[in-house]
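ligand=glutamine
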Amino acid sequence: MTELLLHMIEKHKKVTEEGKVANYIPELSKANPTDLGIYVLDNDGNEFFAGDYDKKFTVQSISKVVSLMLAILDNGEELVFSKVGMDPSGDPFNSIRKLETSSRRKPYNPMINAGAIVVSSMIKGVDVKDKFNRLLDFFKLITEDPTLDLNSRVYLSETETGNKNRSMGYFLKSENIIVGNVEEVLEIYFKQCSIDVTTKTIARLGLFLANEGKLSTGEEIITPRITRIVKTLMVTCGMYDSSGEFAVRVGLPSKSGVGGGIVSVIPHKMGIGVYSPSLDKKGNPIAGISLLEDLCNELKCRIF
Ligand code: GLN
């Protein structure tokens, strides 16, 4: 396996040149565009890795998977999905368009920014600090990584430039989909996106989902039903408006982030974390996707 991963990294490294590092959040533009790394964890405790697997990057939209699980635990499935849909939007991740024009009065799904901001507004806690800390602690618990922490530079950069997200937050408040203080909701959202991770952290998130919400000790943290909801939404909406193409090419429940990460789940078997900060036009890691496609051909691990 290690040899296969080394070969894959070498083969797909050149694909990084076809994309661009995100620059709409200024701190993210400092990433090295040619970086490419992968971490694979399996149920027998084996760990395989190659390339730039130990570089730190911010989790960005992969955090939407984590916040969705906690919001469902905090509020129940029914309340959460009364405020956010379960269908692909067909629009880019940061699109505001359908919020006003669609007849449904809620964001299409929890994987696009508008839906994730609603989900963040549902995390419980006595104040904004407590809400974010609960989210961070939950993230640490399910990835079995107590070292996870906020990257303050990226957080400041996001909060200074995140005016489109801010406008969506206020629009959702005007529609009574968000209740409470919008700036506090955005603080949680921007902070959850700015948590530093490595490919190992997100591979662990993948393995947690692969094992239907169980830690490596066997302890169940969330129910198989909640993990099924999350994994289904990852398949249909996790790569935004290229989720269909990704499902054909890779065929695994996955979620990307503009920091360059991708988490992929091989049900009951493996968790995969990829780092590839050079992004395609849809904001997905370009070399990470071609690497995963190739790897799934080799491992014959597609769910379809
Ligand atoms: N923090 C980013 C944003 O709000 C997350 C987007 C992403 O990773 N696709 O724009």
